Amino acid sequence: MKYHIEITSSAEKALRKFPEKFQEHLTTKIFNLGNHPRPFRCKKLRGSGYYRIRIGDYRVVYSINDLKKMVKILDIGHRKDIYR
Q: Which end of the chain is more exposed for a tag (fewer CB within 10 A), N or C?
C-alpha cells in the first residue's frame, strides 16, 4: 500500500544543506518509505512512536500514521546530533 510522504520544514532545511549528489540519495531513500514505511533494519525509537532509518552516518527520523497512510519526515541529520 502506498503511503503519502510529508516532510517538515526543518527536515527539508536540513536536506538542502547536503551536497546535491547526497540529496538525491537521501530523497530516493525517503520516497521509498512510501512503499515500505517499515523497511528492513528500520528501528523504532524508545520512548516515542518515531522510527529511524540509517543512511551511512546519517539518520532520518520519521513517524507513521497507518490510518491516514502517511509517513512524516521529522528530522535528518548526522548520527551524533540527531537524537539531541
A: C
